[in-house]
Design a protein that fits this description.
5 helices; Stationary-phase Survival Protein Sure Homolog, Chain: A; nine-stranded mixed beta sheet; 11 strands; alpha/beta; about 25% strand
């Protein structure tokens, strides 16, 4: 089974290396050259996409996460069975799936009949992500999800919590995606508006992925096209 690994933080981001480690170095990395967080499902159709082959199992793409998936499954590999995206430095909970390049990469795979898993790590400032811990938790989740059947036209969205060192190991909770909006707040200076919404202050309806993750557990949702 060929696994494609991608992200929206860029090919040299620590998250994709942690993801690769979580699956014991397996898979082929096909990831963006640059950081493209929040690019959504943007694709490149009006200009060429440069592909740099770094090795037999690593390609750097001058395009978006969705571009990476398209190229991986249509040109770079002929036997793709799964697409993994992440580990994103920041949560992709609830309605974030419409904004996220991380999630777009696996949504694109689902459009082509290929299952996928997007993995993100909520960041609770001022703490920083411990990538060794993130690797261990991701490996635990993937060991389960990669063996589960999934409905065609859907994919898994996983969000890791941000816990203090020494905390009790989080549970894996299958839940529904929140439909509540992100906090929309701007600071106005003349004709300029500066976004000041705080991620941690978003709505967290009980039992939704936002609530599960913010409560300290691993939120897993099945998202349908």
């Amino acid at each position: 089974m060929t696994l494609i690994l991608t992200n929206d933080d860029g090919i040299d981001a620590p998250g994709i290396r942690a993801l690769q480690k979580a699956i014991n170095g397996k898979g082929v990395i096909v990831a963006p050259k640059e950081q493209l967080s929040g690019c959504g499902h943007q694709v490149t159709t009006n200009q060429p996409i440069h592909v740099q082959r770094r090795s037999d199992t690593e390609y750097m793409i001058a395009g978006t996460p969705a571009d990476c998936t398209r190229l991986a499954i249509k040109h770079l590999r002929q036997d793709v069975k799964y697409v993994l995206s992440g580990i994103n430095a920041g949560g992709n909970l609830g309605v974030d799936v419409y904004l996220s390049g991380t999630v777009a990469a696996v949504r694109e795979a689902a459009m082509h009949g290929i299952p996928g898993i997007a993995i993100s790590h909520w960041m609770k400032k001022p703490m920083v992500i411990d990538w060794e811990v993130a690797t261990r938790r991701t490996a635990r989740v993937l060991a389960d999800l990669l063996t589960r059947p999934i409905t065609p036209g859907s994919f898994w969205n996983v969000n890791l919590p941000h816990l203090e060192a020494g905390s009790v190991e989080p549970e894996v909770v299958f839940c529904q995606s929140s439909t509540q909006p992100l906090e929309v707040k701007y600071r106005v200076e003349g004709d300029c508006y500066f976004y000041e919404g705080e991620y941690g202050k978003r709505g967290r309806a009980p039992g939704t992925d936002v609530d599960v993750c913010f409560s300290g557990n691993i939120a897993v949702t099945q998202v349908r096209l």
